[in-house]
C-alpha cells in the first residue's frame, strides 16, 4: 500500500502543533517537528543555540532528520501519515536567514516528495512569542512567505488552511485529502 505523506507546515505560531495533536487524537499517524530535539542534543553537547553558532550544521542535521522521517513514514500501518514540516522547510528557513548552502539541500527537496502540503498562514490573533519562539509576528509573516515560495519552487501547490478553530482546520485538511 502506497503511503500518502502529508506535510503540515507554516511559520512559527500558526497552530501546527495543535492540529497535529488533533490529528493524532483522531487516529492519524503523525511525525513531529524535530528541530527542538536537535537543539536539545546540541545543548547536551555544550552548544547553547546550534542554529546561531553553526547554522549550516544545524540545517544539515535538520535535513538528515527530515529525510529519516520521510523514510519512517513508510513504516506505519496506515494509508496516510502527517509530517510536521518537510524537507523544503529546511531550505526555506536557510533562505529566510540568508544562509548559503550546498546544492544537495535543494536536490533533497526534489528527491523526497510528499503527496500534499498544507500551509498554515500567519494569524496575529493566536501568535505568541515565548522562550522557544523568539520571532516577531512580522518575522513569522516573512518566514511564511519563504515557506510558500520554496514549496512552490519544489513543485508543490501548497493548500492554505483557513484560520478558525482547531476542529475546523482539522476538518478542512481531512476534507482536502481526497
From TrEMBL:
Domain named NadR/Ttd14 AAA: residues: 5-169
Xref: InterPro entries: NadR/Ttd14_AAA_dom, P-loop_NTPase
Protein name per Swiss-Prot or TrEMBL: ATPase
